[in-house]
Every structure is written in C-alpha cells, then in structure tokens.
Amino acid sequence: MEIIGNIIKGAIHLKDALTPEVNPIEAQEKVLEMLLKTAKDTQFGKHYNFETILNQETPSLAFANQVPFFDYNQINEAWWSKLHEGEEDVTWPGSPTYFALSSGTTGKTSKRIPVTDAMLSAIKQAGIDQVTALSNFDLPAEFFATEAMMLGSSTDLTEKDDHLEGEISGITASNIPSWFKGFYKPGEAIAKINDWDKRVVQIAKRAKQWDIGALSGIPSWMELMLKTVIDYHKVDNIHQVWPNLQVYTSGGVAFGPYKKSFNVLLGKPVTVIDTYLASEGFLAFQARPETTAMQLVTNGGIYFEFVPFKPEYINPDGSITQDAPSLTLKDVELDQDYVVIISTVSGAWRYLIGDTIEFTNIEKAEIKITGRTKFFLNTVGSQLSVNKLDDAIRFLEEKFKTTIPEYTLCAKRFDDGFYHSWYLGSDNLTSETVADVLDEFLKDANKNYKVARSKALEGVKVEVVSPEVFHDWSGANKKKGGQVKMERVMGEDKFKTWEDFVVKY
Hints:
Number of helices: 17
Shape: globular
Distance between the termini: 49 Å
CATH topology of the largest domain: Rossmann fold
Largest sheet: 11 strands, mixed
Helix content: 25-40%
CATH superfamily of the largest domain: ANL, N-terminal domain
CATH architecture of the largest domain: 3-Layer(aba) Sandwich
Radius of gyration: 23 Å
Strand content: 15-25%
Strand order of the largest sheet: 6-3-7-8-9-10-11-15-14-13-12
Number of strands: 18
C-alpha cells in the first residue's frame, strides 16, 4: 500500500507543479464572460439583455447595474418555477438534470435548487483541485492509499418528471468519478439507505473492514457517526478502529464550535481542512496549511460579488436591499464582512446564498465564513454576527473546561424587556454559572453589544440542555444527517416552537 501511496502522492505533486497559478481577478472576468455568453439566449438572458452587457467596456459593472439581486424565493417565483412546468432554456440552456433539496437552516419547506451537468462538472473539478492541494500539506505517502468516508445524505435520489431530486451531498456522491469509487466509503449500498440511524449502524458494523484515512461531512453529524462506531466496537476513540485516519474535511458550518468535542473522539491529532460546499455549488476550500482560511474557486462555474454587510443593506428577512452596492474581487478589503452573491452555471443569477464572509488574503482570494444574513442578531442594536457568537462559545468552553457543540438563541421580549435567550448544548454545565460570564465576554468583544446593554437590552438568559436535544430537533423538523444544520439565531415564533420542543423532551 505504501508503494501505491507514493505513486499517487507523486502524481498529485506533479499535477500541482504543472498547474499554472490562477489569477483570481482575471479568472473571474473569464467566468462572467462565459456565463453571459452561454446564457444570452435563455429567457433570463434575453430579459436582461446579456448581449448588450457583453458589448460594454466593463461587463461586470453593466451586469451589476442591469440585473437585480435575487434570493431563493424571488428567483424561484419569477424563473425557476417555470422549470417545474416543463419549460426549457429558462435561466440556463436546456433543463437541469437534478434539483438539490435544501431547507438550509431556517426554511420551513425544502428549496429546489437546479443542478445542471455543467455544475456537476464544476464541482468535480473543484474536488480534483482540492485533492491536488493536498500536496501542500505534510501528509505521508501511505495516506494516499487509504479510503475516504464521505458522510452525507442518501444517494437514493427521487425520480420526478425528467429529473432526480435529493440533497447536494447525495447528488455529488452518486456522481463520484469511477476512479474514486475504490476509495469511497461507505459504498453505494450503504449510502443509499434513507434512514440516517440505520445507515450509521451499517457503517459501524462494517467499520473495521475499512482503512479510513479521511473523513468528510458536517461536524455535528460526523460526531454522531463516530460516537456510534466507537460505542459499537467498545473502544475509547476512533483511532482504535481506523488507526490511519489523518484528515477530516469539514464543511457547511464553522468547525470552531465543534473542535473541542470532536477532538475528544480522537486518539491522535488529525489535519482539519475546511471546505465550502453549498447546495448552489462548490465555493471554496482550504488550499494550504499555513491558514484555516479557504480559497474561493474563482476559475470554475461561479462568479462572485460581495455586498458590504451593514445593517442599512439588510432587510428584516435577511435579504438585501436592491440599492446595496456590490463589489468584485478587485475592490474588496480586509477586515470587512461581506454578503456573498453568486451567479452560476446552474442558472443562479446575482443570487443571495445567505452567507457572510471576510477576506483574510485578497491576493489569494482566501476567506473565512463569518455567519448568515438571517443569523445576524441586531435587535435593539446589538449587531452580533455568528462568528462573534462562536467566539463566545469557545470562550465558555475554555473558561468552564467543557464542550458546547451546539447552541441557539433568540432576542426575546420578557415582562421586563428584551434579553438574549440562549440554549447551550452541554452535558456538564449549569445555567446559573454561565449567564454573567457570557454577558461580560460579549460586552468586551463587541462595542455595539455593550452600547445595547446600556439601553434596551436587559441582559442574557441561559438554559443548558443535552446536545441530544439539538440532534433530535433536527430529526423531528427536517431530516438527520446530510446538509442539515442547526439554527444559531431564531425569530421569536420559531424560538417558541423550539422551547415547546425542549419542554416535552
């Protein structure tokens, strides 16, 4: 196996050496031109006159001026709904082969996001580029001959009319390249099991037959799978089952809040590599070990724009105002949160994906995810984004020597005024000891929160519940596993449903 590993590692190093370095700004200009040329004869392209945009001196500026922003509801109602009525050439030539079902973290019903063959090709290429980037990490040759566990949603897709539907992780897993199938686990038969708990039990039963070197999946569900495997085999940590495990590819949410609880399941450190794969496309991945930031995939099937994340540009429902300015890569700055806007080879145009990011290196187009537009807690002027909330959780973990893998909160009105009402998932923490510490940390970390505390925000209330409550909430309201993520910030109506669920638990 070491010989095979050396051959694969050598091939990856060679491909990396022969691949020219991408200039992100130039690459993005080419991607926009390709998108506009390909879609100019679609219904959308004709409506917004892509032909004229292409003939302008600065197509990026004309594109921003001529095409409005869309969130999912807006583009689905005006355009994508036509695809479900059998129309073709709507926002992209032809009709999509797949629709990715995504309720995200806040939606009540599944979104149906088109996934074209061109998008699948772009995702595969980004995946190859990520594998090539492993040459930048100090990984031994034997790692490259091990197997990879991809823990996503079921690959048993639903056939509907002329397309298939499922979560994006299931769609991509059902389209893995033939050369990778020998390395891919849990394999097609287990991956098709719809019931999450049954699928994980089968993984546990087969676990010792596999030589897993890499894991890939959302942290919360990965933790549950690892715990099941550990319990099934009556061992202390996952390395007693998979001794060659060396890499964990995280994605979908920030890994920070899960780091401490995840590490408890390990027998030795692993290399954690972040990725940014959403239902709308493969946006970014960590390309080098010197940073935890991710490099935008600027030469694939996605064109990026960035709106400064400021309260005056954000509507109450998390969408952005039509007068909000948008920037291209050449105009962004460090130390500024931006709302990500994408246009893609699946026919999404100036589309609000819902995430906020910050650039850590503009020349390399490296970013970190800072939160969600809908998770921006700005009641009574507190202006807390998810990265600030995650920082608070990490502080509490260190302060109280505990793990808090899940949390949610709401700015809730009580009889004596507004409070930030938190629920923390922990097995060895008490509510009474946390509230004051949390409040003081947020005051020190965020000046807007401190000002709000001196005015209309009365303070912090904390309830501690078992992390299992969060997992069961996701299972009861949506579906376990896959792309399902816990809401970090809820509105009052959703929060009441959550609190009713907790009481009955």
